[in-house]
Amino acid sequence: MALLTLADYESTAGSLAAWPPGVWDFLTGGAGTESTVTANREAFARWRLMPRVCVDVSVVETSTTVLGSDWDLPVAFAPTALHEVCTRDAEAATASAATALGVPMVVSALSSRTIEDIADAAPEATLWQQVYLFRDRKVTASLVQRASAAGAQAIVVTVDVPRPARRLRDIRNELRFPPHVQARNLAASTGRAPDVSSPSAHTAEAMDPSVTWEDVQWLTELSALPVLVKGIQVGQDAEHARRAGAAGVIVSNHGGRQLDRARPTLDALPEIRTAVPSGYPVLLDGGVRTGAEVMIALALGADAVLVGRPVLHGLAVAGKHGAAMVLGILRAELTDAMAQSGHPTLDSVDRSAIHPAPDPALLSADTVPPPAPRVLR
Ligand SMILES: Cc1cc2nc3c(=O)[nH]c(=O)nc-3n(C[C@H](O)[C@H](O)[C@H](O)COP(=O)(O)O)c2cc1C
Ligand SMILES: CCCCC(=O)C(=O)O
Predict the structure, then answer these.
(1) How far is CA 15 from CA 98, 139, 237, in A?
(2) Would residue 257 count as lying in a domain?
(3) Could you give the C-alpha distances from 137 to 95, 190, 300, in angstroms and in order?
(4) What is the pTM of this model?
(5) CATH of the domain at 144
(6) Does residue 327 contact residue 101 with C-beta atoms inside 8 Å?
(7) Residue 193's pLDDT is what?
(8) 323: which of 54, 97, 124, 336 fits an S-S bond (Cβ 3.0–4.6 Å)?
(9) How many beta carbons lie within 10 A of that of residue 371, not counting itself?
(10) How many domains is the chain built from?
């Protein structure tokens, strides 16, 4: 079967026999009832595109500028841990795919390869380093310093993991990664290989539940690199991040993996967009799976989006080619949606480009009046 959509990649990846026990559930799952994983996706279904016609779309331009750098697509690779569980070349493969498509890759603090190795493997890649404010701040500082020396262009600090989440699939599966899966980037900053065989035990040990905006400010002053705060879900927190010196925010609920029943990121986006000055970078992740959905996120105020799980599906199906194919599908779909809706560039994609879908409750049998009975003669 031809793999034409991100959903095709997901189902093909899910049916691979090679997954170690529990790993597919780890990638796919979320916290608690997984209501937020589902809600992130469903939020996109509540919007429709409003096609304009008789606009010259003979040339469609998907490129954009974020934090002063040019991206071929308004899409980046979200930071996801341990790519070695998906493909042997791990983040070296992901970085080549990102380079091929002209989009940035956010390297996880828990990557299986060091930032130096990733930069060597893909010298042209635009790399951003994701970090946590670990209990041991020296580890955070070392990750930032090494990323800067390796040529990374920004730091992303993830602030939505105060403690391990209740990920029921992982608990039931008693998830343990195979021993070859290692967090080498972190190891290079801690001086010893951290035990990540149980993600939740590692999170409990390493993450700091006492983090406040003062710590974010400390991080923004640590290096010359711009810092984006990832995990913003409320307008006021976007403003806190900006005041703490952040160069931008990423609207994210960690793909529904931390707080079950958190609101979908797309629903939070308009509030966050209006809480910060226009021109201040606002990115979004969570449930983006088609090019039309990229347009919807942009129309609601995102400068760009990030994709998480689909990249892992691509890596698992066909290594770097698979990750590049996943992004290639998003590019083809976005280009098509822009052309079909009369937007030759992304500049014109604003709130007027979309319309709320009718509320299904209003269409139910209870609320739509039945037709008047016919009078029979
Ligand atoms: C397997 C997996 C590992 C992740 N690891 C990290 C991580 O190390 N750091 C981080 O900030 N976010 C991490 N995330 C969250 C992603 O960056 C992103 O917020 C989320 O996956 C976006 O949703 P999507 O998967 O629906 O696109 C991870 C997500 C997944 C699925
Ligand atoms: C040891 C890896 C845990 C990362 C993860 O699952 C997440 O951040 O969602």
Answers:
(1) 25, 38, 40
(2) yes
(3) 27, 11, 36
(4) 0.96
(5) 3.20.20.70
(6) yes
(7) 87
(8) 97
(9) 6
(10) 1
Does ligand 1 have an atom closer than 6 angstroms to the CB of 287?
yes
Q: Is 362 inside a domain boundary?
A: no
Protein residue closest via CA to atom 3 of ligand 2: 199
The answer to whether position 377 is within a domain reads no
The conformational region for residue 260 under phi > 0 = left, psi -120 to 50 = alpha, else beta, is: beta
Question: Looking at this predicted complex, what is its ipTM?
Answer: 0.99
Angle at 95 between CA 154 and CA 307, to 5 degrees: 75
Q: Are 45 and 271 a contacting pair, CB within 8 Å?
A: no
Tell me whether residue 375 is in a domain.
Answer: no
pLDDT at 365 over 70: no
Q: 């201040």: which residue's tokens?
A: 280
Residue 14 has pLDDT above 70, yes or no: yes
pLDDT at 166: 97
**Residue 59, domain extent:** 6-356
pLDDT at position 364 is: 67
29 lines ligand 2 (CB under 6 A): no
> Does an H or E element contain 152, and which?
none
Q: Is 237 flagged in the annotation as binding?
A: no
